[in-house]
Amino acid sequence: MKPAPFSYERPRDLSAALSMLAASSGSAKIIAGGQSLGPMLNLRLVQPELIVDISGLSELKRAEVSGNELVLGALVTHADIEDGRTADVTRGAMRAVAANIAYRAVRNRGTIGGSLSHADPAADWVSAFAALGARLTLRNLAGARMMAIEAFVVGALESALHAGEIVESVHVPARTVSSHWGYAKSCRKTGEFAHAIGAVLVDPAAASARIVIGAIDTTPIVVTEAAELFGGRIAADYKQRFDTRVADALLAKAGIDDAAQRHIHVSVLKRAVLEAAA
Amino acid sequence: MEGAELRNEREFPSGKSGQGVGARLPRKEDDRLMRGRGQYVADIRLAGLQDVAFVRSPMAHARIRGIHVPERHRGSVFTAADLVGIKPIRAVSGLPGFKISEQPVLATGKVRQVGELVAMCLAPTRAEAEDIAASVTLDLEELPAITDMLKAREPGSALVHEHWGDNVFLETNYEVDISAALDAPIKVTREISTARQCMSPLEGRGVVATFDRRLDQLTLHSAAQMPHITRSGLAECLDMDEGQIRVISPDVGGGFGHKGILLPEEVCLSWLTMQRGHPVRWIEDRREHLIASSNCREHHYKITLYADRDGTLRGIDCEATVDSGAYSSYPFSACLEAAQVASILPGPYKMPAYRCRTFSVATNKCPILPYRGVARTGVCFALELMLDLVATEAGLEPGEVRLRNLVQPEQMPFDNITRKHFDSGDYPQAMRRALAAINIDAIRARQSLGETDGRRIGVGISIYCEQAAHGTSVYAGWGIPMVPGHEQASARLTPDGGLELRVGVHSHGQGMETTLAQVAHEMLGIDVAKIRIILGDTAMTPYSTGTWGSRSMVMAGGAVATACRELGERALRIGAKLLQHDPAAVVLQNGEVCGVNGSVSLKTIAHTWYRRPQDLPADVDPGGLEVTQGYKPVRDSGTFSYAAHAALVAVDPDLGEVEILDYVIVEDGGVLVNPLVVDGQIYGGLAQGIGTALYEEMPFDASGQPLATTLADYLLPGPTEVPAARLDHMETPSPYTQFGVKGIGEGGAIAPPAAIANAVNDALRPLGVELMQSPITPHRVVTAVLAARAAERSAA
């Protein structure tokens, strides 16, 4: 389990990194914390010609509140969030998610930008940020574009990143005072990738909700028009009105044929709904 | 009882030093191992060392049409065609009807498992060797893969070894009066299975091979449990004298059976270093470990239990199949597992009638190897799940059914229906203590109230007895390449009064550098800090079959005691001379020879013998202070330790998650040389048993591809999955062994799958759910819950 030969660069700043990526014409991989790419290199599942190590780019380590949102640089680690070294606009939601990602050793090195770029449907941020309504800034030499997380993850281990493009930052909107947050996942053991994730952001006062069913074989299911999951309307009694049959149908529509798998996903989502709190 | 007076026989009592037999002494070796100062095979550096990576078969079953090596790498890649004169690995059993497999060290003709070695690539570093391996292309003609052991038994199946005519290594039949059971009012039949697993020691296998032209000797550093047996196997494959081979096994990070096997890699690297004239190395990586060389546990049972209405067992009728994989491994063979099933299935119970048919089946998977507990884990799972069903049928508590059928203490020693000789113990007491400790009555009361979190709780129990330190009479019957005889130990008093002990067993986590020193201390009174244990090197230790079958404390411990007793006698005779006494008038105690004239220390005796022989009288015994002695217990049919396990679990029927809330183990390993070390053995075994119960599984697809090839897919229990179990020790001495010790190394891994599965079934029985397959995964639980709900709906 040793990687195939590759070249290695550690650029000083973001523009140097983007130049290297542009020059590599798609044969480069970006490494930050290396918690996913490292094993994939060792297993020779990826054999890039060039590794661009961005771990020295200080401009991607910033975390600041800007207006009504938190902007997190791609190199912010899970542990930065877990330990409260970054500001929080989600009233503890992100911190709780971060604290249960893999193992502490992984959280120390793993970055949010790396996790999102890897686009593993079982990764926590892919679901949690989608429920929180976060957006991404993607940048290449030509400029930047923004997109919602749910548009960014287009398949299992497949993102909307173009060649030469990098996840620069994550924009997390402030969670409203009236909203309830619930997050549940099922892992067979501590630190393992989840087999089911349910993430819910419900605002009974605004009659709105964002519901995510994650850790399925493909892109997480993100429901932004969620009234049907709650018997037609979202109100203070949403927990009692949660309709497991609608969730089950969503999973069946996503191609999950196995009834036990669907049942576990629905049960995890139900738990996230029932445990949702202000 | 004859022989009973042998126990705790201490001619040289050590006094109250707190270091002898029974002392909870911290492990001496931990000072080295816990500081990262251990030396494992991968730590060995030799000048000119080069690394090997193997090209392995990507297919489970295929004919090899060609192996293409790029021009630039010719000379660095070696195939079977290069290995002239190297013999395949043959592990033949003498049991009638056994079919022989020949495992080529590099594939010839066909490949029969994914991961089988096809070519060996040499480079200055492992990464470069892997680059070369990646450049080699194989031209393979895929053949139908045999992946299902039950289908493999059917006529018309594709064949792993064509010339056999079928896929059965060995079929056995054992029957005692089964017809007497057939009229029993309770008859329960089920199919039960245990998943294929990988052993997963922290350290994988590894080999560093070098050849010394001056000594005309191959030195193989290998992470091995049984270095002397490895040497015998190598000598056979390489056609060399045993004296031309030295096997050194340094610190070893867990064995569990995986490191008892002669590897094709060991043969390949031995050949390679002799060809090339420089040292070569191969270190197994985790992927190789999971895919290619450490599989175990895959059993299937079709089993019927017969019982009376009061729960009294009347008989067992069973057909057991073991997926033995593609080849018979050296030295344990492909049939040990199934043959053991037939001989131990009746468990610790009185059983009037018994029939068991077994099949050891060849498939396109890697060879099955004897893992901690060997067949006992599967047997305990099958039998103890069935006992719970008998209890349900009889309307009794599972504990009641066990207590009714266990062999009673007054019946000991007891010869059971398969002629196993249970040496001693009080099995019902262990069960009663476990039931009391888990507090079965409180659990039943809590169950009647229900849980507030939507989960269901259940309690499960299991009990087994475990034959350990099997001797000559047991293994001669298997007729495999290795039969243990007398175990030997060498003891040398050094000139400064220290003690060197040389033993042929090995330690890979068992703490033998401490426990064997405690045995020697018990005999001679020498401070354990001054006792050095030398093991793991064929050039420095007496011949031994090595460490397997929970034998080392019984056998090597007995040998150390025997050698030290003789050494003590010799020291005593010298000491008597120095004290000007008759030897009969002095005693050895606390490291001194004492008489009415005074005392003389072993240190002084040693100093005099080696450094000032002029002070010795002319008629001194010339034997000296270095002794090799052999040892066998009074009976060599094995010791029988035993344990009752009880588990309390909470099961979420919607998520399928199982949480262990409480776990109790009541264990009897005879006299414990070091209870602290025994506790560690039990905790470690429990972790592996929990792995079998809930996590570990190597699935295969229809083409024979192993599907859990990294630790992200092959789940091992971690610290948060292993509860703080409560241990309770009983100490019934074995009547046959030195000090009354019994082997206990494997027991912790035997009973947990049965206890946990019984607990899960106890929790879910009101829902109509029954799980008969390990591991109990969330998916299996939920699938069963949904099926039970659907059945209830269609019935309503």
TrEMBL record, chain A:
Gene3D superfamilies: 3.30.465.10, CO dehydrogenase flavoprotein, C-terminal domain (3.30.390.50), Uridine Diphospho-n-acetylenolpyruvylglucosamine Reductase, domain 2 (3.30.43.10). Residues 1-177 form the FAD-binding PCMH-type domain. It holds the Pfam family FAD_binding_5. GO terms for molecular function: FAD binding; oxidoreductase activity. Keywords: FAD, Flavoprotein, Oxidoreductase. It comes from the Bacteria. InterPro entries: CO_DH_flav_C_dom_sf, Diverse_Substr_Oxidored, FAD-bd_PCMH, FAD-bd_PCMH-like_sf, FAD-bd_PCMH_sub1, FAD-bd_PCMH_sub2, Mopterin_DH_FAD-bd. This is Carbon monoxide dehydrogenase. It comes from Bradyrhizobium betae.
Automatic annotation (TrEMBL), chain B:
It comes from the Bacteria. Residues 1-29 are annotated as: Disordered. Pfam families: Ald_Xan_dh_C, MoCoBD_1, MoCoBD_2. Residues 1-13 have a biased composition (Basic and acidic residues). InterPro entries: Ald_Oxase/Xan_DH_a/b, Ald_Oxase/Xan_DH_a/b_sf, Ald_Oxase/xanthine_DH-like, AldOxase/xan_DH_MoCoBD1, AldOxase/xan_DH_MoCoBD2, AldOxase/xan_DH_Mopterin-bd_sf. SUPFAM superfamilies: CO dehydrogenase molybdoprotein N-domain-like, Molybdenum cofactor-binding domain. SMART domains: Ald_Xan_dh_C. Keywords: Molybdenum, Oxidoreductase. PANTHER family: ALDEHYDE OXIDASE 1-RELATED, XANTHINE DEHYDROGENASE. This is Carbon monoxide dehydrogenase. It comes from Bradyrhizobium betae.
